[in-house]
């Protein structure tokens, strides 16, 4: 019999954690759930997500999901309609690396108090919020605890041109300087990994995908056989657009409108004003439903009830791996990527068999026509996902890879 390894503790410093409902919160919460299987005990320091705080992205369905020791610091935002509220939000936008200042100071104090207990072996700090990296850098230098930087997003990877500080890559230079003390770095795709290696050529860089959690999905949920429903969950972010899909739907309505008699496309949680403008004077507008943002659990149910899922890729940015892509893989429904990115997301869909990219309106029209014909003939749409390949992208598998990295960092420092 082998000797059982004793568990080590990792202090995870990140702005968002459950019941925050954003992708960064899901990433860290699932890592905290599965890291104990790699003999790592998480201690999480985060901002407290509370009802009524728009900045907190509160999801009541994620309450009570804590699986480890938690350190929560309050986030108090000034009223939006007050002068200070306006100034504060402008400063947050212009100086994203410095604000929100309140949680930074409180989290630094709380994390340092926890470090002083002497039982933390490694620190893991998650960006893109810069203050988590600053805190980890400070604690590592002062207390000699090695740290790992989780660079989920890199500054400037998909700038919309409005933030001049991102455009000048000031934030990038700050993060490069902060991460010099890190023992290793993490990001979510190979192109972003290559970028990090160019910043820090002497440091190990590990790819840890966002992934999906198999436990979130029910095998009992089946799509509506009488209706071809396509679903998109999330925001239509800068650089992504459903316009090519709308063009394809308009073309189908013009050539054979009966094909779309039982077709609908629902957007959950997207900017209604933006989508309404894109749909103005379009024939396909009657097929599109703009729905409110729903809880994480409700979004999973919506995906499982759909015949197919819409993914909006970043065609002009390399390496962006939205967590939604992996969430879709977990749902086990065919994915249509518009227009594809010619890179990492296309590769994942091709290798897993989870979906296809439609790069032009004609390609999308052909894909939809084929899918709808299959659905009409068979009553369902076949999913060609390869179980063995898809399983590589589970949260559990990714947490195991993170555990291996923490082992190496811990061992290299002789702790």
Question: Describe it for me?
Answer:
The chain is of the alpha/beta class. The chain has two domains: 223 residues, Rossmann fold, CATH 3.40.50; 176 residues, Rossmann fold (3-Layer(aba) Sandwich), CATH 3.40.50.2000. It contains 15 helices and 13 strands. The protein has a seven-stranded parallel β-sheet, sandwiched between helices. Helix 8 packs across helix 13. The longest helix has 18 residues. It starts with 7 loop residues before the first strand and ends with a helix. 40% of the residues are buried. The N terminus is likely disordered.
Give the percentage of residues in beta strands.
15-25%
Shape: globular
Count of runs of 4 or more consecutive helical residues: 15
How many beta-strand segments? 13
Low-confidence segments = 1-5, 159-168
Distance between the termini: 25 Å
The SSE string, one letter per element, is EHEEHHEHEHHEHEEHEHEHEHEHEHHH
> How many structural domains are formed by the residues?
2
How would a crystallographer describe the biggest sheet? 7 strands, parallel
Return the CATH class of the largest domain: Alpha Beta
- As a percent range, the share of helical residues equals 40-55%
pLDDT averaged residue by residue: 89
Summarize the structure.
The chain is an alpha/beta fold and 415 residues long. The protein has 15 helices and 13 strands.
């Amino acid at each position: 019999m082998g000797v059982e390894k004793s568990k080590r503790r990792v202090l995870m410093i990140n702005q968002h954690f459950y019941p925050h409902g954003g992708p960064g919160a899901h990433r860290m919460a699932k890592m905290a759930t599965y890291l104990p299987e790699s003999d790592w005990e998480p201690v999480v320091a985060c901002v407290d997500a509370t009802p009524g705080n728009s900045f907190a992205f509160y999801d009541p369905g994620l309450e009570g999901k804590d699986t480890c020791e938690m350190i929560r610091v309050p986030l108090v935002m000034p009223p939006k309609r007050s002068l200070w509220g306006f100034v504060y939000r402008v400063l947050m936008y212009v100086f994203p690396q410095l604000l929100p200042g309140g949680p930074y100071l409180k989290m630094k104090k709380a994390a340092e108090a926890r470090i002083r207990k002497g039982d933390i072996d490694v620190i893991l700090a998650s960006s893109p919020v810069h203050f988590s990296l600053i805190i980890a850098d400070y604690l590592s230098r002062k207390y000699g605890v090695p740290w790992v930087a989780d660079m989920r997003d890199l500054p400037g990877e998909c700038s919309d041109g409005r933030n001049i500080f991102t455009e000048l890559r000031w934030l990038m230079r700050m993060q490069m300087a902060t991460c010099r003390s890190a023992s290793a770095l993490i990001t979510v795709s190979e192109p972003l990994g290559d970028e990090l290696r160019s910043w820090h050529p002497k440091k190990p860089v590990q790819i840890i995908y966002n992934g999906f959690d198999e436990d979130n999905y029910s095998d009992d949920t089946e799509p509506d056989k009488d209706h071809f429903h396509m679903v998109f969950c999330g925001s239509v972010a800068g650089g992504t657009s459903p316009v090519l899909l709308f063009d394809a739907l308009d073309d189908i309505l013009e050539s054979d409108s009966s094909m779309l008699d039982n077709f609908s496309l629902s957007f959950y949680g997207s900017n209604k004003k933006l989508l309404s403008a894109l749909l103005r004077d379009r024939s396909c507008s009657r097929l599109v439903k703009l729905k409110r943002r729903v809880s994480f659990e409700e979004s999973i149910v919506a995906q499982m009830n759909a015949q197919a899922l819409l993914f909006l890729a970043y065609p002009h940015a390399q390496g962006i791996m939205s967590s939604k892509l992996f969430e879709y893989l977990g749902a086990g429904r065919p994915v249509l990527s518009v227009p594809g990115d010619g890179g990492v997301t296309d590769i994942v869909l091709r290798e897993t068999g989870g979906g296809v990219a439609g790069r032009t309106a004609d390609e999308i029209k052909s894909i939809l026509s084929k899918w709808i014909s299959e659905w009409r003939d068979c009553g369902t749409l076949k999913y060609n996902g390869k179980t063995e390949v898809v399983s590589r992208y589970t949260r559990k598998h990714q947490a195991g890879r993170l555990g291996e990295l923490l082992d190496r960092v811990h061992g290299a420092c002789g702790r």
